Amino acid sequence: MAITTNFSLTLFFFFFFFFFFLFPLFSNLGLAQVEDPELKTCKHQCLQQHQYSQSDQQQCLQSCELYHHLKQEREKQIEEETPKKKDHSHYHQHQQEEESRERQEEEQEKQEEEDDNPYIFEDSDFHTKVQTEGGRIRVLKNFTQNSKLLQGIQNLRLAILEARPHTFVSPRHFDSDVVLFNMMGRALLGLVKESQTEKFILERGDMMPIPAGTPLYIVNREEREKLFLAMLHIPVSTPGKFEEFFGPGGQDPESVLSAFSQNVLQAALQSPIGKLERLFNQQNEGSIFKISKEQVQALAPRRSYWRPFSGPSRPEFNLFNRRTTYSNEYGRLTEVGPADDKDNLDRLNLMLTLANISQESMSTIHYNSHATKIAVVIDGRGFVQIVCPHVSKAKHEKSGPSYHRISSELKPGKVFVVPQAHPFVLMSSKGQNLLVLCFEINARDNKKFTFAGKDNIVSSLDDNAKELAFNYPSDLVNKIFNRKETFFFPLESPSEERADA
């Protein structure tokens, strides 16, 4: 009797194990959908056990019924849980898609915010490369950090040197070509050429191209006025980066020579190590430091009685003194480019321009055919507007692009970029002229096309083309676009007579 009872319990536990552990697996495989034969088989086995008494068989059949009941309950539970799992999985998938979409929208909004003014640079976009009591050098961040739209000038860097009165900017050379422009003050520039130093007196408006690797030093000759130099660096070895190297120096600025081994320096300079250590441990004033009036005078070039032409050299170009390209009572534009300097500006494919816009006046709306303009405001206040097709937020469909107006207030030190072919306009405020220095990149064969004033592109179109382009009578188009001034105009609204014409 004990044997048959144990067998019945063993059979029960077998079905219990099958139901709770194997059946869910079969259900997932789709076998639960077929008519279940387990109950019938279970009962048949109970009745076929000859060693069972009638009581044992009855107990075995009850175990089968219990198993069948539990199985049905389990099937019902699985059916109820499966949709919930599907719904839960679908919810998580939907939630992940929503989070991904929100992240993409945030990134897009951030990019749009950055691109709202992709061509305008603020003071915060400069980082200080050198800072001493005597002055500082600030470098504008890489242009492509502001916008990928400026990849055409990503190799270039703009730096501003500010030196206090009577200061000495230590000798150095750069791994970049440099175009230097004196924005304010009077300076002495020393350039090492072959076996001697050639000295230049730099007045406001003077421009100097300096080939890469040329050793130079700078002196602010003024007793009370600061010196401001704009320096456009065109890197030679590493695109978008430039470095300065100090030859003469000590601890601060550190001389490049101090990095060589002692035996190399002793052999090269034929001096014992003690003397060399004293030499390279003396200077610790920084790379820009104040000097005395006597030291400034000692650095100034002097004419020799025996060499009457041995005085200071003069830069070939001063933008304030050059003949203007466009000039009237509302403004002047001066240009120096590749055709004027075959040795340097032609090699660099660069032009410098100086726009001097009279107060409450404006330039014409115009664009450059080839050149990209990097502009620095030297003096005055005003505004710039640039039309850009790349950041338009227009959603409606058109057969051509939609345009976004990029606007910014201008003040001294403000930097902006106008890419090639982008129309723009400069306007001066009341009270003072607006003075803007421009480095124009890819200047060779560049042409300026205007939309207003004498010889503008609309007036130059034939009448049939005008009528087709505007769907408007050509004589009325001509009345709107024709005016006598060239390039610079008064910043004023038209009179009623002009508006009704």
From TrEMBL:
The UniProt record lists the keyword Membrane: no
Biased composition (Basic and acidic residues): 75-84, 94-104
Alphabetic keyword roster: Signal
The Cupin type-1 domain, residue ranges: 119-277, 317-478
Signal found in the keyword field: yes
Region called Disordered, residue ranges: 75-124
Any Pfam family: Cupin_1
Signal sequence, renumbered to the chain: 1-32
Biased composition annotated in UniProt, kind: Acidic residues: 105-117
Highest taxon, organism lineage: Eukaryota
Name of the molecule in the record: Cupin type-1 domain-containing protein
Organism: Psophocarpus tetragonolobus
